[in-house]
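User: Can you help me understand a structure? I only have the sequence.
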Amino acid sequence: MVPIYIEYTFKVEPVQPATEILIAELGYAGFESFVETEDGVQAYIQQTDWNKDILDDINILQSPAFQITFQQKEIEQVNWNAEWEKNFKPIVVAETCAVRAPFHEPYNVPYEIVIEPKMSFGTGHHETTFMMLQHLLETDCKDKKVLDMGCGTAVLAILAGMRGATEIDAIDIDTWCVENSEENALRNDQGSINVMLGGAEVIPNDAAYDMIIANINRNILLQDMATYVNNLTKGGVLFLSGFYKEDLPIITESCNNLGLKFVQNKEKNDWIAAKFVN
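Assistant: Let's start by predicting it. Here is the structure, written out as tokens:
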């Protein structure tokens, strides 16, 4: 059965930082996928997860600092390449990693990742994905076993594979993301990436990861933190993102309570990508 989605098209003034805040709050409310546009964002939630009061707790909509209008409609699953082609531009991280779509010109860099994003989150444009790419470029991935939680397009899993990781699992709750991740993995000669549908509950019981990458949101990270730590080797690295600077203390406290040590964090437009070691 083809899933039915509710599409919200938000127009925002000023676009930043309102769009980033709006995406974060919508993510907490259960929206799965986002397409940033020139004047705001399109957000998508499965009809089965939607209710008419879904926006009541989106605080930014009540803020006098921003002008936000929106329209909504039902849609069926479609191919989103045309929409992304209008909005998706290549990015380059640390002059060594480029993320582009198939319709862009190639880049002469050590790591070139070709992503056909459809509706999946994770093209490198969002601050959290960009910073996680930075972390991976600074980290020894050779011969590591890696888990990419909330993989979106699998861009992070793909970079880990390009940098030498030999066993990679990628998990997402969205069927579109799973399909897209499998396609992107093959497109980048990383077909051995094992993509799974679900949340933390589908992490294999015997998993022992050297590195876990979780770019989701604060609430899910806190909810699943113990599961991550239980599946992390001694000395293993946990990268966490998808939350704001103001949430770093509670994230750090949760990690510390589970025996992890804070190493460092990156910050971009108030978004955080933090590194912890077991």
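Now, to help you interpret it: DSSP finds seven helices and 14 strands in the chain. Helices lie at 18-29, 81-87, 127-137, 155-162, 175-187, 218-230, 248-257. Let me know which part you'd like to focus on.
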